[in-house]
Design brief:
With 211 residues, the chain is of the alpha/beta class. Helix content is 36%, strand content 14%. Strands 2-1-3-4-5 form a five-stranded mixed beta sheet, sandwiched between helices. The longest helix has 12 residues. The chain is globular, with a radius of gyration of 19 Å. About 14% of the residues have low confidence. The structure holds zinc ion (3 copies). The site of one zinc ion (ZN) has 6 residues, from α5.
C-alpha cells in the first residue's frame, strides 16, 4: 500500500502545501529569488546578489564576481580575494564586480531601463553601488543583511530621494538556510568563519547539493 497521503485525506495537495508554506508577500518573493541568484556568485570572499524589479516583474539580476570573460574569482581570477587581505582592505585592487553593479550593467547590456525600479539586495549596498543605483534611476533599495552602511551612503541615497529599507523579520529560503548549517571544512580559519555566517552556499554545500 502506498504511503502517499496527498489525495487520501480530503485535503487538496495545493491547499496542504499552502498550509505548510504560506504564500510569500512580494518583498519575500523577490528576496528569496535574490538568495537563489546568490548561489551563482563566483567570489571566494563573499556571495551577494541583486534583483531589479519594476511593476512586480524582474527586469535584471546580478551576483558578484569577476567580469565577463575573466577567470572566476574562486578559480584564482582575483589576486586580492585570494590573498589574506582582511575584510574591507585592498578593495582598490579587487577585480570582482558587485552584485548591484552587475545587475545594472546586465540591464544596460540588454537595453532595459532601470528608471523607477526597486533593487533587492542580499547585503546592504556600498558607497560605489549606491552612486550607481542613484544614477540608474532606481528609486528603492531593499536589503536583507546589513554590512556597515556608512552615513555617507545613507546621506547620498536620502538626498537623491532613494528609499533605503531593510527587510525586517525576513527569513531566508529553507534551502539556503540549510546550506549555511553544513559544517565547513575549509582550511583557513578566517574563511571558515565567513562561510558559516555569510556565504549562502559554500563549496562543500554546493557539492552536497550536486551543483
Ligand atoms: Zn572576489
Ligand atoms: Zn576580489
Ligand atoms: Zn557595492
Amino acid at each position: 500500500m502506498s504511503d502517499c497521503t496527498c489525495h487520501d485525506h480530503g485535503e487538496a495537495p495545493a491547499a496542504a502545501a499552502a498550509a505548510a508554506a504560506p504564500r510569500p508577500d512580494w518583498d519575500t518573493y523577490f528576496m528569496d529569488i535574490a538568495h537563489v541568484v546568490k548561489t551563482r556568485s563566483n567570489c571566494s570572499r563573499r556571495n551577494v546578489a541583486a534583483v531589479i524589479v519594476k511593476d512586480r516583474r524582474i527586469i535584471s539580476t546580478g551576483y558578484n564576481g569577476t567580469p565577463r570573460g575573466v577567470r572566476n574569482c574562486n578559480e584564482g581570477g582575483c589576486p586580492r580575494c585570494a590573498s589574506n587581505a582582511p575584510s574591507g582592505t585592498g578593495l582598490g585592487e579587487c577585480i570582482c564586480s558587485h552584485a548591484e553593479e552587475n545587475s545594472i550593467t546586465q540591464a544596460a547590456y540588454h537595453g532595459i531601463s532601470t528608471k523607477g525600479a526597486t533593487i533587492y539586495v542580499t547585503l546592504s549596498p556600498c558607497l560605489m553601488c549606491s552612486k550607481m543605483i542613484v544614477n540608474a534611476g532606481i528609486r528603492e533599495v531593499v536589503y536583507d543583511e546589513e554590512y556597515s552602511v556608512t552615513e555617507q551612503t545613507r546621506a547620498i541615497l536620502r538626498e537623491a530621494g532613494v528609499v533605503l529599507r531593510r527587510l525586517d523579520g525576513y527569513r531566508r529560503p529553507r534551502l539556503v538556510r540549510w546550506a549555511c548549517l553544513l559544517p565547513c571544512k575549509r582550511s583557513r580559519p578566517a574563511r571558515s568563519a565567513r562561510c558559516g555566517s555569510q556565504r549562502a552556499l559554500c563549496d562543500r554545500a554546493a557539492r552536497a547539493l550536486g551543483r
